[in-house]
Amino acid sequence: MNAPVLDPVTALRPTALDHLDWLESESIHILREVAGQCSNPALLFSGGKDSIVLLRLAEKAFRPARFPFPLLHVDTGHNYPEVIDFRDSRACELNERLIVRSVESSIARGTVRLKSADESRNRHQSVTLLEAIEEFGFDACIGGARRDEEKARAKERIFSFRDSFGQWDPKNQRPELWELYNARVHQGENTRVFPISNWTELDVWQYIEREKLALPPIYFAHTRPVVRKRNLLQPVTPLTPAREGDVIEELRVRFRTVGDITCTAPVESDADTVAAIIAETATTTITERGATRLDDQTSEAAMEQRKKEGYF
Q1: DSSP secondary-structure letter at 46?
Q2: Tens digit of each residue's pLDDT (9 = 90 or more) over 105-154
Q3: Element (H, E) at 80
């Protein structure tokens, strides 16, 4: 039997890449640019879904070698324990160095002052992050922010320059034509680097499904007591107890994003698998942070001001 005749053009043509392949390739390129240009970077890892994706991209960029940067987490002290447990176990599995700095320590030093004991610590993470950058001399911090999350983030460059005070000026950023990045900084300055800036929430979930990535369980639908606050759901916890007049409901919910307990709201959902979450995400009309962040119900200008002050 004669062997089939192959078209030499078709035989040499590379396999078509889907959109996740293109996004992955871009992100790996960005991570390698950080490693090549920066002398002392760190990758922010909270145990959340975006930073979990960043870890997989770092594995593909640098394995079998160790990462050319440590993992860094700024802990508010009010994070969901399931997420902190996952953070620690994942760093241990990868055998990578995890540095944790806490807002609690900044409060003890007096560099963070709360207006009240129950104030959200989310916005105060910027102080602790700047202190960690100064302590370790980091010249770049890699994070999982995406432009689709909210309008102020959409103004960020992929390599976002910060001055010696850790501040961001959206009018003083470097051009990034043809995916050419400039990470050069003077002593005390740094860049915030966002390798998945061009990804969407749906892209992240599709990548999680493709790569079969493990996640903290609170990303999947479960029953939890909540109260309704400003059209959002606030979990009832020791940190966020029900107030007089609140109606406690036992609802099936999941978290689209995770952060400080005092400001992270779940959404009603029965999606208990990644496939179900993808289907749900594909039809939602509310942005991720708009639907889940009690402290983000402010104007674009207010969020931009927080970023100028050092908020990641």
Answers
A1: -
A2: 999 999 998 888 777 888 889 899 999 999 999 999 999 988 887 766 66
A3: none
pLDDT at residue 172, as a whole number: 72
Give yes or no for a contact between 78 and 121, defined as CB atoms under 8 angstroms apart: yes
Domains of the chain, earliest start first: 18-202+303-308 (3.40.50.620), 214-298 (no CATH)
Cα gap 108→293, rounded to integer Å: 26
| 2-55: pLDDT as tens digits | 555 555 544 445 556 799 999 999 999 999 999 999 999 999 999 999 999 999
Q: Which two tokens stand for residue 82?
A: 């399931």
Residues in contact with 54: Cβ distance below 8 Å, sequence separation at least 6, in sequence order? 43, 45, 142, 143, 144, 195, 196
DSSP string, 149-211: S-HHHHT--SEEEE-TTS---TTS----GGG-------TT-EEEE-TTTT--HHHHHHHHHHH
Own/partner contacts of 34-40, CB < 8 Å, gap of 24 or more, are 34/69, 34/140, 34/142, 34/183, 34/193, 35/61, 35/62, 35/68, 35/69, 37/181, 37/183, 37/184, 38/139, 38/140, 38/183, 38/191, 39/139, 40/69, 40/136, 40/137, 40/138, 40/139, 40/140
pTM: 0.85
Q: Which residues contact residue 220 at a Cβ distance below 8 angstroms, ignoring those fewer than 6 apart?
A: 254, 271, 272, 273, 277
Residue 48: predicted pLDDT: 94
Residues written for the chain: 312
CA dist 199 → 97, 110, 177, 239 (Å): 27, 38, 18, 33
What is the residue type of 179?
A: E
pLDDT given at position 195: 94
